[in-house]
Design goal:
Number of strands: 11
Largest sheet: 9 strands, mixed
Low-confidence stretches: 262-267, 269-294
Distance between the termini: 15 Å
Radius of gyration: 20 Å
Structural class: alpha/beta
Helix content: 25-40%
């Protein structure tokens, strides 16, 4: 592993991109193979029926959530360990419902597995978005798109044809939906929190941002390496049960001045946003600073950094992990090195 030492965080030694090995099956390998063979066609049939047909029908939110729980139930994801900041175990039903994300609120979720999006959809029926390291705008995703993004290669910049909007616009356009943001921009193995995209800074000041950490037992059903479809399916379907550990922090508000600035005119893509800004005539199409497409940490104000840090620290605390300095650029280099090693 010496060749991968550069992909460990220098301060903590954490390696957030390495796949987590499965525990040896030993004498139970035949049982694991049997479970996989039985579950695989059922899982594909149920998932395909939902995503190809049922999700497009006017079945109602509750019925669709029940179908998503059925998909989760096939691989044995029945046990959910849910805890909410400030709420004692066993007293959740008696608590104020506003401790949980409500319509027009934003979830800043950890990003480790395709199951993240499936579980959040089964609970909150939210809108999903993709974040990028150098822009405060986000790209809206379908549930299937959010699931497949957990298998995708890391991207520093949005695709040329991506439609980008800030969170304030999405909240205004969808006041009856929860919005999910994955501020780390790419998946990890759950052992560290990557540097955040500034996308959460485009949230309106009145919206609650709920940090939500999802971790798994066994922990090998994560997808830090792109396109690891069959490894993920084997790890997911070959075990009798899987557990999700869900932690929800108290809401954070965007108190930075950028949350109070007027909305800029939305643009159709990353490229048009950048080029239009360059070609604007004396401010005719100039972009406000909260929709710049080349944002780094040094461009954040002190108050903006505090907002980002509050959400990131909450996610690290909930997941009992540390923040690391390795980001999307580091993961791109890791994937290239990992792919070369696998070819030889």
């Amino acid at each position: 592993m010496e060749k991968y030492s550069q992909f460990r965080d220098r301060g903590s030694g954490i390696a957030p991109f390495f796949p987590i090995p499965s525990p040896p099956a030993g004498a139970y390998i035949a049982f694991h193979v049997f479970l996989f063979i039985i579950r695989l066609p059922i899982f594909f049939s149920v998932a395909a029926t939902y995503f190809i047909i049922l999700q497009w029908l006017p079945l109602g939110s509750l019925f669709k959530k029940a179908l998503l729980w059925l998909i989760l139930g096939v691989p044995g994801i029945w046990w959910i360990d849910l805890q909410i900041d400030g709420v004692k175990k066993g007293s959740l039903a008696r608590q104020n419902p506003h401790r949980l994300p409500q319509p027009s609120d934003i979830i800043a979720s950890s990003f480790t597995s395709p199951i993240d999006s499936l579980y959040l959809a089964a609970i909150f029926d939210p809108l999903f978005t993709a974040s990028y390291p150098h822009t405060r705008q986000v790209q809206r995703l379908s549930l299937f798109g959010a699931i497949m993004r957990a298998f995708a290669a890391p991207q520093e910049h949005p695709p040329v044809n991506a439609v980008l909007k800030d969170l304030r616009t999405i909240v205004q356009e969808n006041p009856n939906r929860v919005i999910v943001v994955f501020p780390e921009c790419t998946t990890t193995n759950g052992r560290g929190i990557l540097p955040f995209s500034p996308s959460i800074l485009s949230a309106p000041s009145g919206a609650k941002i709920f940090p939500v950490s999802l971790r798994y037992t066994p922990s090998d059903i994560t997808s830090p390496v792109p396109r690891s479809y069959w490894t993920f399916l084997w790890n997911l379907l070959s075990k009798p049960t899987n557990c999700i550990r869900v932690r929800i922090a108290e809401a954070v508000y965007n108190t930075s001045k950028s949350s109070l600035r007027p909305l800029s005119n939305p643009t159709n893509s990353y490229t048009s946003n950048y080029l239009d800004t360059l070609q604007a005539d004396d401010g005719a199409l100039s972009s406000s600073t909260d929709t710049l497409t080349a944002v780094d940490e040094n461009q954040l104000t002190g108050e903006e950094k505090k907002v980002v840090d509050r959400v990131a620290e909450a996610l690290a605390r909930l997941g009992r992990v540390k923040r690391v300095a390795l980001g999307v650029e580091s993961k791109i280099a890791f994937v290239e090195a990992w792919s070369r090693h696998r070819r030889h």
